[in-house]
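User: Some background: our group keeps a shared notebook of sequences we're curious about, and every so often someone picks one and asks for a predicted structure to add to the entry. Today it's my turn. The entry only has the sequence so far, pasted here. Could you supply the structure so I can complete it?
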Amino acid sequence: MRLLVSACLMGVGCRYDGKSNQLPQLKELLARHECIPACAEVFGGLSTPRVPAEIVGDRVVNREGREVTQEFTRGAREVARLAQVTGCTAALLKERSPSCGCGQVYDGTFTKTLVAGDGLTARALKELGLTVYGESQIEALL
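Assistant: Of course. Here's the predicted structure to add to the notebook entry:
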């Protein structure tokens, strides 16, 4: 299967703090699927490292109070376009992220409080009909 994967899960240091979240099962995932890495936050024009951001209502705001909704929206559109042009049918995304979170995201208070919801990129991919998995669901892909 052609699988869109959050770049940080593939070992790319593109998280807000410049680190990665490389999956321990990465070799097995790569053996089973054609993986297309993407980082919506980078695609949207944000730097690495960057100030952490969370979803607040219908906006994305960083810890300093700067609204970054436009960058997150642009990145989500670019990742969705990448998924379309490469023929991805599913995505494996970083959980809790304001871009890639699927099922739960941080609540916007920067206290690590989780609420039900999806990040902007996860929403865009679901709207295209992709099956979206969070990294805790990787076993379904192995």
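Suggested note for the entry: Residues 2-141 form one domain. Strands lie at 2-6, 34-38, 53-56, 59-62, 90-93, 104-106, 114-116, 131-134.
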